[in-house]
Amino acid sequence: MLPAAVVLVVLPFAVSCDGQDHRGADGSALAAGSPALLRSGNHLVVTTGNGLVLRPADGRRVTVDERARVDWSHDDDTWTLDLSCADPGREPDAQECPRMPVVRIPDGVSVTVHARNAGVDVAGVAAALDVTTVNGDVTATRAGRDDAPVRLATRNGSVRATALDAGRVDATTTNGDVSLACATAPSDVTAATTNGSVGVTVPHDSPAYRVTAGTDNGRATVGVPTSSARKGPAMTLTTVNGDVGVRRG
After folding, report:
1. Among 64, 99, 118, which residue terminates a domain?
2. Among 46, 125, 136, 188, which is least packed, fewest CB within 10 Å?
């Protein structure tokens, strides 16, 4: 009986090879071709036609909302997770696709997200982040890593981050506000919108920045020590219609 017991323990972490959708021990989706484990330094790309919620995983495996349709592929250390919904015309019996599925990310796994027509919410994910959506907000809380880049972008939505850790920050939108509150002092900040305001807060002990702050219709306020050096920390804050500002927290 011992070999059978061993198989039962290992199965929740095995990679499925039969084309069927399986579940891990916690009930989360574990689809065909999914990684048994991801290690720090791996890269995860998530594509979806809806929004997304990113949260930290308890272990080394990516887990996915059990309601989601899951398709995995990979190339070396980069894994791609496609959460595209079924076509109701072709699959009338397919279950309803979740609007904001939850994906849990192991520590140290860098993440790229391509979403649309809904927001992306990231909290507690300690890694390099590249998050984009269209027609939705991007929010980040206690996310990123102080030695890694963070990019947050949308069109027709706002970008809001609190307690953000990042070596470099790039936050952009077209119609919406950009609001960044950094827990650590990034070496480079770019924050831009067209119709909206831009506000950045850096730690009270942050270094002097080479600041470019511009708006066509609004006020520009710089409340941090500035530097004219060509090298070193830099910050570019721009909008067309709205205020821009940076201050120490």
Report:
1. 118
2. 188
